[in-house]
Amino acid sequence: MIMQISSGMGPVECRVAVGGIFGQIQKEFPDIEIVTATNGEVSGSFSSIIFTSDQDLSELEGTMEWICKSKYRPGHKRKNWFVDVSVIQEAMEINPKISADSIRVEKFHSGGPGGQNVNKVETGVRVIHIPTGITVSSTRERSQFANKQDALKKLSAVLTQINTDNKYKQKNDAWSKHAQIVRGNPVRVYEGDDFRLR
Fold first, then answer.
1. How far apart are CA 34 and CA 14, in angstroms?
2. Closest by alpha carbon to 141, among 157, 160, 122, 158?
3. Which of 61, 82, 122, 188 has its CA at 20 to 30 Å from residue 97's CA atom?
4. Structural contact between residues 186 and 64, judged by C-beta atoms closer than 8 angstroms
5. For 68-133, where are the E strands, in sequence order?
């Protein structure tokens, strides 16, 4: 599963909280691996950390609170800082390499201009990608072989585009979650410089 811990638009203390809380979660679940992290302005602080785990950590999803007096702004009265922990939907990865057992090929009469041969011979080709159900067809070439090659090229382009779109959507989801933090009803509360779990 892929998760993100984020400071949202919060101040430096929230970015420190991201680093400290992530460190505690990592001790608790040692199989966690960082995918990407965006450093904050002070050592050990992060505006966002995206990480993976083989375990189901969905119970951590929600707002987490860190209670600590700010050492970055000593006169500041506030001592409650909030971060967001979200599950990021995994981008569906489709293999753009097309194997013979992943497609079904159908032939049909092309129709339209192109001489007598077009309507007598099945030159049109339809390729169905079995895992996704995506169908592409080609009738523009004169031979069945050429139309099959053209349809396979189109299918490969479609599958590559789907992968690109899915990755873009995953990034967008991560950003939208980074931009919103709900304060109140935290799933966990940590206290002090050593991030003790309350």
1. 19
2. 122
3. 122
4. yes
5. 80-88, 103-108, 124-129
- Element holding 174 (H helix, E strand): helix 144-178
For 32-46, what is each residue's pLDDT tens digit?
A: 999 889 999 999 999
How many structural domains does the chain have? Answer: 2
112 and 188, same domain (yes or no) = no
Over range 62-76, report the average pLDDT.
91
Report the 10 Å Cβ neighbour count for 27: 10
| CA distance readout (Å), 115 to 94, 143, 157, 183 | 39, 13, 30, 71
- Taking CA 8 as the corner, what is the angle to CA 5 and CA 11, rounded to the nearest 5 degrees? 110
Task: Give the domain range for residue 6.
Answer: 2-92+178-197
What's the pTM value of the predicted model, to 2 decimals? 0.63
- Residues 6 or more apart whose CB falls under 8 angstroms from that of 179 comprise 8, 9
- Are 121 and 183 in the same domain? no
Task: Please list the residues that pair with 4 across neighbouring strands.
Answer: 50, 86
Q: DSSP character for 182?
A: -
SS3 at position 38:
strand
